[in-house]
Amino acid sequence: MSIYLYGVTRAEVPVPRGVRGVGDPPGKLRKLVAGGLAAVVGDAPEGLRARRRYVQAHQEVLLALAAGGPLLPTRFGVVVADDEAVTGRLHADAHGYAAALDRVAGRCEMNLKASPVEAGVADLVREDPRLQRLRQESRRRPGYDVSIRLGEAVETGLRRRAVGAAQQVASVLSGLADEVQAGPEVPGCVLNVSFLVAADRVAECRAAFDGAADRVAGRAELRLTGPLPCYSFSGLPAPAGA
Amino acid sequence: MTVITDEVVCAPRAGTLYDVLDLILDRGIVIDVFLRVSLVGIEILKVDARIVVASVDTYLRFAEICNRLDLDHDSTSRTVPELFGGASGSAARVGAKKAATSVGGKVKDALGMGDGHDDEDDERDERDEDDDKQPRRRTASRSSGSRTRSRHRDDEG
């Protein structure tokens, strides 16, 4: 029976009670201890797919685990042949995992995403001479081409405005974070960035976000999510000599 | 975690799936050295997962906005199809106060999503997946359902 891997933690971190794992019926969680490390695993469900319910279960297990101690969260969908494959791997790179756990200990990930907003196009036009020119042109001689050019210019302007606003907010959060990591490109987002934040600074982070987001209100739509398991800060240090 | 509470806003929470989907699917350790069973199609399914999760999460957020609305104040817009026009469209994201406020008026017309919405939607999600339907089709059928509801409402009014 292949096993589903949720994450790697320290041996003493408890497996959360009452949390259901990935699968139908939801899989039970168990801990594979290897020296000072432990992997939290469950039986891999047959026909594992990226279903909403499974992804949600994966996330909830990780949130519960991260509440109990440092955690290196696994990406959704990592399946391993058997217990020995996991413990063998933990033993083989024990120092790397321990160092990676030290890095995230007492910290969490906060993720900032920003998208353009369509509100306030009037302000945008007022501030941009090129938009004013295109608008006048479009009103004088309406047509498909000029409409496309005008619309494209507005879209570009909205994006640029959102990027500027998002960077302002991101720089405020960077000042409170231990590390910063750009996230994957996400459709519709002009900025996706994660912050590694000390657990006791999350409230401060939220307050700073609220203040900064207020100052750029109407220019970008900003979403700060967290505290999250440290998805973006869990890479193993490069092996020595590599 | 809901922090902004002074207006009708759905602040992102740690449990909101859509906003962290990229992290769950693309970040986190993989441990390639492990005997990783390559999940057939999981890379492709990521795309579908984004669509499915996006639309369900959008409905859940709108339902939450709905539940907080003060219906004694009249709304100015009733364009429901616009609401459900696209999960990745601007109406789907309600983080900023302005966006949420402007959406809020439209949401008033999208009533009918009760407390059981979450479970019902998840069931639908699961069923459709079991039937191997494309998420796109599912999304399409949902939005036509919304249109039906909106027409019905127009007939009443």
Automatic annotation (TrEMBL), chain A:
DNA-binding recorded as keyword? no
- Alphabetical GO biological process terms: gas vesicle organization
Which keywords does the record carry? Gas vesicle
**Domain of life assignment:** Bacteria
What residue ranges are annotated as transmembrane? none
**Family label:** Belongs to the gas vesicle GvpF/GvpL family.
This one is known as: Gas vesicle synthesis protein GvpL/GvpF
Species source reads Actinacidiphila cocklensis
Automatic annotation (TrEMBL), chain B:
InterPro entries (alphabetical): Gas-vesicle_GvpA-like, Gas_vesicle_GvpA, GvpA, GvpA-like_CS
Which branch of life, at top level? Answer: Bacteria
Low complexity: which segments have biased composition? 89-100
Q: Name one GO molecular function term.
A: structural molecule activity
**What subcellular locations does the record give?**
Gas vesicle shell
Of which family is this protein a member?
A: Belongs to the gas vesicle GvpA family.
Protein name stated in the entry: Gas vesicle protein A
Record organism: Actinacidiphila cocklensis
Lineage, top ranks = Bacteria, Bacillati, Actinomycetota, Actinomycetes, Kitasatosporales
